[in-house]
Amino acid sequence: MIRFPNGKILPSVVLSTIGGHYGSGMFPYIFDAGYNHLMSSLPETRTAILTKSATYNKRVGNVVMHKPWTAYQYIRRIKDRGMVNAYGLTNPGINECVEGIGKAIARGYNAIPNFYPEFVKNGVDRLEEAIRETIVAIRCFKYNLGEAFWAVELNFSCPNSEEEIAKNMQQVLQCLAKVREELPFVIIIAKVSWMHPIEFFEEIATKKLADALHCFNTIPYELVFGAGTRSPLKNGLGGVSGGPIRELCFTKNQEVAKRVNLPIIMGGGVPVEPFDAAKPYFDIGASAISVCTDAAYLPYETLALINRHL
């Protein structure tokens, strides 16, 4: 559990991205009875749901909603309760996302918006514009969601984006500093990448640029399965989540917890079974854990985990 300076509390178990862009469900899992049971139970538990990333303008990635076959071409289950995806940040843009989040909140969902600053677009560096869009987006969340909006997750970790994640650190620091300066009222959760060095997280903490870190979500396929290997996706690329990255993320999370003076939401293949599977994460210093891929594989067990940590 994380108690933030404004008195708001993030529970010990959160769901990340698996609730979709609005926090109340996502394609194609909505066709699964277990997933629907999980999602319909979340308003009662008040589970925090970190939404899937919005960008300022509509963005069409590899997965196109009106072409369902693209979900199979660019999202695939793999061994060890894993998943590989090259989703490419498909989303309807900030205006539609904030409307959808508002409707989900009205139905009782505890949705925390996620925004992706596009530092590079169509091959062009656009740092200043991306920072401006981020600030406008957060103000849009506040204006439309009112008191229900108190935190934003800024995503700096998508492996299916144009910029090189391992090299975007100065952009991230400048973005966080400007958001902190312009919008001191908002709690900032920085979603960072496994490819970022721990020294980068230390700098975020030292400069007080975020209120919590979310470590981690995916790792590029070839870093998990070896250089030169191709994923089963149409483009041979993608980010891996779930079981195959569990050990890599756990090891780095342990080191982050030792060195970084910020609350840490630990993710990256966090399992929901057996019964005490989450305990090692709290033992190494997690303030909260985030579940994503296992919620798709084991929705009933995910709900049981949430209820144990209420």
Structure description:
There is one protein chain. By secondary structure, this protein is an alpha/beta fold. The protein has 11 helices and 17 strands. The chain has helices spanning 33-45, 69-74, 94-106, 127-145, 169-182, 198-206, 221-225, 246-259, 279-283, 293-297, 299-308, and strands at residues 2-3, 9-10, 13-16, 48-50, 75-78, 82-85, 110-112, 114-115, 120-121, 124-125, 151-155, 187-191, 212-215, 219-220, 239-242, 264-266, 288-291. Strands 7-4-3-17-16-13-12-11-8 form a 9-stranded parallel β-sheet. Strands 5-6-15-14 form a 4-stranded antiparallel β-sheet. A two-stranded antiparallel sheet has the order 1-2. Helix 1 (33-45) packs parallel to helix 11 (299-308) and helix 3 (94-106) packs parallel to helix 4.
Q: Order the strands across the largest sheet as they lie in space.
A: 7-4-3-17-16-13-12-11-8
What is the subunit arrangement here? single chain
Order of helices and strands: EEEHEHEEHEEEEHEHEHEEHEHEHEHH
The biggest sheet, with number of strands, parallel, antiparallel or mixed sense and barrel status, is: 9 strands, parallel
N-to-C CA distance: 10 Å
> What is the tally of helical segments?
11
The amount of beta strand, in percent, is: 15-25%
> Helical amount among residues, as a percent range?
25-40%
Write down the overall geometry.
globular
Calculate Rg over CA atoms: 18 Å
Helix and strand content put the structural class at alpha/beta
Average pLDDT over all residues:
94
| Total strand segments | 17
Indicate the low-confidence ranges by residue numbers. none
